[in-house]
Amino acid sequence: MHPIPTFNAKGVSIPKLGFGTSQMGDCAEIVAGAIKIGYRHIDTAWKYKTEKGVGEGIRQSGIPRHEIFLTTKVSHEYLRANDFSRMVDESLRNLKLEYVDLLLIHWPSPEKVPFDETLHALAKAKQQGKSRHVGVANCNIALIEEAIRLCPEPIINVQVEYHPYLDQSKLLSAVRRLGLAMTAYCPLGRGRIINDPIVADMAKSMGKSVAQVVLRWLVQQPNVIPIPRSSNPQRQAENFNVFDFELNPEQMHRLHQLARLDGRIANPIGRAPVWD
Ligand SMILES: NC(=O)c1ccc[n+]([C@@H]2O[C@H](COP(=O)([O-])OP(=O)(O)OC[C@H]3O[C@@H](n4cnc5c(N)ncnc54)[C@H](OP(=O)(O)O)[C@@H]3O)[C@@H](O)[C@H]2O)c1
After folding, report:
1. Is 43 in the pocket of ligand 1 (CB under 6 A)?
2. Residue 1 confidence (pLDDT) above 80
3. What is the distance, to the nearest Å, from the Cα of residue 61 to the centroid of all Cα atoms in its chain?
4. Distances (CA, A) of 181 to 154, 194, 235
5. What average pLDDT does this structure show over 183-212?
6. Is the pLDDT score of 2 beyond 70?
7. CA-CA distance, 18 to 91, in Å (whole number)?
8. Which of 37, 38, 181, 200 is 20 to 30 A off residue 77, Cα-Cα?
9. How far is the CA of 22 from the centre of ligand 1 (A)?
10. Which residue has the CA at smallest separation from atom 21 of ligand 1?
11. 21: CA distance to ligand 1 center in Å?
C-alpha cells in the first residue's frame, strides 16, 4: 500500500482520491474495508443515510480518526440558519464523531434562502469546531465567487460532477484561479463510462481497467479530487491503484474530447443552478 498524494487547498492537505458512499445503505463494513485498502478520504452526506455506517466503519478500521479526511453535507431542505445548525449536530450524532474535516452545503438555493444566511451558519459550524473546514457543492462560478465573498470563513473546496462526458473546463479554470480544491463526483459517470469503447481501447493498450484510466485522467488534473464509489472490494482496490502510471498529453486530450452536451447526470429541476 502506498500513501495517497494530497492536494493543498489554501493550506489544507486533502487526499487526491476519496471514497464515495451514496446509495450504499448500511456501509460500515464496506467503509472499514475501503480504509484498509488505503482510502483516507471519505465522502458522505446526511441525505445518503450513510453517516452512521461511515462513522462505524472509521471506528472498525482501527485507523486513527485524524488520519482520515471526512466530508459531510447539509441537505437543501435545511438552509435556514437554525435548521442548518441543527442538521450539523444531527450529522455528528449519526457519525458519533466530534468533528468532520469538511462540511459542505449540498445544494445551495439562494432564491429560497439568502445565501448569506446559509454561509454564516456554515462558518459557525467551523467556528464551533464541528468542522475543520468548509466548502460548497453544486455551485456555478458566480455562486462560488459569492460564497467566497459572503462566508466569514475561507471556502476551500467545491464539489461538482466531473467525468470525461462532462466538460468542466470553465469551472475548473475558476477553481484554479481561486485556489480551491474541486471534488469530482460521479467520476465514473455513475458507471456509464465503463462501457465506453474509446476508453476501453486505451485501457487495454495500457494494461489497465477503464475505471483506472478515467480516475487517472482525473487525479492527473491539478486541483481535481475524484471520489469514486464501489461496494466491491476488488473494484475499490482497482480504483485506488491509479498513482503508479501516467497518461501522456495525447491520452489526456483524447479523454477531454469525450465531453458531450448531454453528459450531465445530476441536474435536479428547481435545484440546479445555471451551469457554466
Ligand atoms: N454533491 C453531490 O451532489 C453528489 C452527487 C452525486 C454523488 N456524490 C458523491 O460522489 C460519489 C461518487 O459518485 P456516484 O456514486 O454517483 O458515481 P460513480 O462513483 O461515478 O459510479 C459508481 C458506480 O460505478 C460502479 N463502479 C465503481 N468502480 C467500478 C469499477 N472499477 N469498474 C466497474 N464499475 C465500477 C459502481 O458499482 P459497484 O458498487 O458495483 O462497484 C457504481 O455503480 C457518491 O458516492 C457521493 O459520495 C455527490
Report:
1. yes
2. no
3. 21
4. 12, 25, 25
5. 98
6. no
7. 19
8. 181
9. 7
10. 190
11. 8
Pure H helices in 38-186: 51-61, 81-95, 115-127, 141-150, 169-178
Does residue 185 have an active-site annotation? no
Q: Is the CB of 18 under 6 A from ligand 1?
A: no
Size (the chain), residues: 276
Q: Which helix (H) or strand (E) holds 232?
A: none
Name the residue with the closest Cα to ligand 1, atom 25. Answer: 191
- Grid look-up 475543520 returns 132
Running DSSP on this structure, what letter comes out for residue 65? G
Assess whether the C-beta atom of 118 lies below 6 angstroms from ligand 1. Answer: no
Mean residue pLDDT across the chain: 97
Query: What is the distance between the terminal CA atoms of the chain, rounded to a whole angstrom?
Result: 38
- This prediction has a pTM of 0.98
Render pLDDT for 54-76 as a digit per residue (tens, 0 to 9).
Answer: 999 999 999 999 999 999 999 99
Q: In the chain, what percentage of residues exceed pLDDT 90? A: 98
Give the number of other Cβ atoms within 10 Å of residue 66's Cβ: 8
Q: Which domains does the chain have, with CATH numbers?
A: 14-191+221-232 (3.20.20.100)
Query: Which residue from 138, 52, 135 is spatially nearest to 95, judged by alpha carbons?
Result: 52
